Amino acid sequence: MMKPAYSIIKSMFVALILCQAVSVYAAPTEGNHYDKITNNFTEESLGVEKFFSLTCRPCLSLSRMLPSISKQSQQTIYKTHVIFNDTTHAAATIYYSAAIQSETLPDRFISELFLLTQANAPVNGTTLTGLFNRYQLVPINKLTPEQHAQVETQLLRAEKLTAQASIMQIPTIIVNGQYQINMRAHKSLTELSDTIKQLVDLPS
Question: What keywords tag this UniProt record (predicted)?
Answer without folding.
Answer: Signal
